[in-house]
Amino acid sequence: MKKFILSDEPEDFDEKVRQKGNQWLRKNPDKLPKDYWSISNSDLAKRFDDLCSYAVMRIPSGNGTVDHYLSKKNYPHLAYEWSNYRHAFSRINGCKQNYDTRILDPFEVDEDWFEIILPSLQLVLTPLIPQEFRDRAKFTLKQLQLQDGDWILQQRQYYYDAYKEGNMTILQLERDAPLLARALKKQQGLP
Where in the chain are the domains? Predict the structure, then answer.
């Protein structure tokens, strides 16, 4: 996967999200947190280079969601914390449910822990994943349908075909589907 690094929160985040959200939580402690975070979606997308933090593929503008790495249900006190947000395809966000720390946090994943196998386009673990992360990595692939879910394979196939047909350069592929670009460069013996 791509190595993502936690970025500074937007300048107006505290005022527009954290303060409003925490005030709402204090008044409604028995309810699920109210959505004040969506206002941050475009800032979050920029911080993740418009890539889904789990699938590591470009999310078309406006189609990504704010994923709470630690779920709103189990960790309502983190619902309005920038450090708990990940940019994700809405489908992945739905698959993630409330599994929280059973799913690998994109911020803890190293670039060489996963690879795409060609021509199947399946995402697999590499031997470089430390043993203490392997079970969670397997669970993440299965739960989020990242290994071979139909919808994710269709996304990868789109990029693969665009590259093969000459409609996308390797540089564009590195921007939009970095794991696939790495697989193609490896297949072609490129650095």
Answer: 13-187
